[in-house]
Amino acid sequence: MQPTSSRRRRSPLMRYAPLIAVVVVVAIVAIALAVSSGSDKKPAVATGGGGTTPASDVPIQYAAAKQAGTLANYTWQDHCDTTTGLVAMPILNPAPCVPKDGGSVPTAIAPPGVTADTIRIGYYISKPDPVQDGLLKLAGAYDPPATIEQTYKDYAQMFASQYQLWGRKIQMVKVEGTGLATDEVAAKADADKAAKQLHLFAVMGGPAQSESFAAELAANHVLCIGTCSIAAPQRFIEERAPYIWPVGPSPEQTSQMLVSFIKQQLVGKPAQYAGDPAFRTQKRTFALVSYDTNDGRFKASWDEMVKELKDAGVNLKLHKNYFLDISQLNQVGHDVAVALKQANATSVIFTGDPIMPAFFTKEATAQNYHPEWIMAGTVLADTSVFARTFDQDQWSHAFGLQLTPARVVQAKNEAYTVHQWYFGTKPPSDKSYAITFGNVRLLFAGLQTAGPKLTPQNFRLGIDAIAPPANADATVDAFATYGNHGFWKGDDVQGLDNAGILWYNSKAHGEDETGVVGDGMYELVDGGKRYPAGRWPTTPVKLFDPAGAVTIYNKLPPDLTPKTYPSPPGSPAATH
Q1: Beta strands at 530-532 and 498-511: parallel, antiparallel or unpaired
Q2: What pLDDT digit, counting tens, does each position of 461-482 carry?
Q3: Are 36 and 468 in contact (CB under 8 A)?
Q4: For residues 451 and 459, what is the distance between their CA atoms, to the nearest angstrom?
């Protein structure tokens, strides 16, 4: 663990800001959740619900040509590394190479925002808000809008110079938010403007806590890329295919991974990790605590989780749903803890926001209730910055899924280092550059693999054809694929395909995700190894065992080490 310079102590107010939760989790997740590639296995390609464009309309990818023995039939794009079949960029899993000659570029079928010469791409910049911006500053998570805007432009310039865009140039267009992240009316109006006045092909980012932004873009046949939509139910995405492209798994997919973990590691065994010694000799019984919105956005997802848990043999004594009401945090926390105490389950499954555990774990201690806490891939609860706000005695018995990728020091973060590779400088934004990088990388992977006939349907065909990495079953890298690659039933429209296992060590000393040094860190089991959906281990994993566990990678393992290349000729880094 490398020491850091002292910084202002974080204000306790940060735990009351839902916006911070969204911003920080996106920053963490977007580092790794971009389209992956690298396998020689030719994947299945599906057209899905977005259209009927045949697969022949998209260019063949290098791995597929290699498997077919037809590599010599093509002249491969500029900047193709023919030893890997991937674009020669020093990032993990760059896009697969495609042939240089894709034929003529038709204009008659071009969707909005696309001509024979240009592609109009939007990037969302949130409306300034004194209260929320102030909280972000106190949390050390604030970037001025101008730096975020420049970072979008930088990464777009870099990818456009290295990826195949079929003779077109990118026109970057700012989409200015007119409301807060939860303002559905403003979000819908902003999306409508992006489609009908700005005439965009795609928008990166958006008001993270609204559904109407993504829904309105899709209704107008505009792509919604990356953090334009966060944690939306799977049906919401599927009904709007091929227009919404999230970077993380759906609640339903997370449920499947969780149930597999519980079934194969926990069911029918004593609750040996509980805080209450009496629980440790009892066969596990379970309670589920889940977050929802006032309009029941996730009810169907949690109902499905309950069914899957029961089908897996889980003795579920309680399902307690709660709403995140900032004005009633203490009361909600008390109500949750009382319900859990009455159910008296040995093990509590938590799937919710990262704020409420600080309240119901405190109340659980007040109720003298000390179970196991099983983390269900919960947004941001698997980061030390928030775990340190929870009751430490309670959370010392927490373990479960790790959705976020393994942490590395900033100097070795690929989103950081690739900007230095091309521009010779660090990214303009200090805190949110990983968000931007993840959004831009996903977009350009689709633009390249869609081929010269750029439509939303071909964007989907190209993305869906990108294969998972060859080491998918034995990697510490978080990877994402779309389409049908055997990880999920049918076509995957969400992204992330694997997860790790972690446990909380209240005594471990180091940096949290904002750089603050203190006690309380998550330990990644088995060196941070991650498991694809449906391929979880059946032998017991080393929970609460520091042997082989890791908190932060100061030295990158091979799976997290991109291939190196010199700065490209003509780039700012090469010319200065």
Answers
A1: antiparallel
A2: 999 999 988 888 888 988 888 9
A3: yes
A4: 8
> How does pLDDT run across 397-447, given as a tens digit for each residue?
999 998 877 788 878 889 999 999 999 999 999 888 888 999 999 999 999
On whether residue 521 sits in a domain, the answer given is yes
What pLDDT, in 10s, does the model give residues 95-149?
999 999 765 555 555 688 999 899 999 999 999 877 667 766 765 667 899 999 9
Task: Give me the CATH number covering residue 273.
Answer: 3.40.50.2300
Using a pLDDT cut of 90, give the percent of the chain over it: 58
Per-residue exposure over 287-317, b if at least 16 CB sit within 10 Å of its own CB, e if not:
bbbbbbeeeebbeebbebbeebbeeeebebb
- The candidate with the shortest Cα–Cα distance to 134, out of 256, 19, 246, is 19
- Please give the pLDDT value at position 105: 57
Residue found under tokens 């420049």: 150
pLDDT, mean over the chain: 85
On whether residue 456 sits in a domain, the answer given is no
Closest Cα partner for 466 from 62, 67, 119, 48?
62
Q: What is the residue type of 489? A: K
Q: Report in angstroms the alpha-carbon separations of 511 from 95, 408, 413, 432, 557.
A: 32, 11, 15, 18, 19
Q: Is 475 helix (H, G, I), strand (E, B) or coil?
A: strand
**Within a domain: 71:** no
Rg of the chain over Cα atoms, rounded to whole angstroms, equals: 23
Q: Is residue 287 part of a domain?
A: yes
- Mean pLDDT throughout 545-573? 92
| Containing structural domain, residue 399 | 252-407+497-560
Long-range contacts of 42-45 (CB under 8 A, 24+ apart): 42/67, 42/68, 42/467, 43/464, 43/465, 43/466, 43/467, 43/468, 43/481, 43/483, 43/484, 43/485, 44/483, 44/484, 44/485, 45/461, 45/464, 45/465, 45/483
* pLDDT at 109 (0 to 100): 57
Neighbouring residues of 88: CB distance < 8 A, sequence distance ≥ 6 = 79, 80, 81, 94, 162, 565
